[in-house]
Specification:
By secondary structure, the chain is an alpha+beta fold. It has one domain (3-71). It has helices at 47-57, 62-71, and strands at 6-8, 14-16, 29-32, 36-39. The protein has a two-stranded antiparallel sheet. 4% of the residues are buried. The mean pLDDT is 89. The chain binds iron/sulfur cluster. Iron/sulfur cluster binds next to loops.
Length: 80
């Protein structure tokens, strides 16, 4: 991962720049939130991003997703 795309949390742990900001937006996210977006690093995305979809299907990340969505004026994810 290029240094310009990540913030160091510890000497061994990095976050994609923007993902822990007050109004989160990953630096790799391309497009307009609420309309059409995609990951600009999809093939090289880090492990947490690869694990996100299967865990989200189990509802594991729904609270964090809904907080991020609210900060961008989007409604919460629908509940099954
Ligand atoms: S999937 Fe892509 S855009 Fe989303 S957080 Fe990961 S690197 Fe960023």
């Amino acid at each position: 991962m290029p240094d310009a795309l990540a913030d160091a949390e510890t000497t061994e742990l990095y976050r994609l720049r923007g993902t822990d900001y007050a109004s989160p937006r990953c630096v790799a996210l391309v497009g307009e939130i609420g309309k059409a977006v995609h990951c600009g690093l999809y093939r090289e995305r880090p492990n947490p991003c690869r694990e996100f979809a299967p865990m989200a299907e189990l509802g594991v990340f729904s609270d964090a997703c809904n907080r991020a969505r609210a900060r961008h004026g989007l409604p919460p994810l629908p509940v099954d």
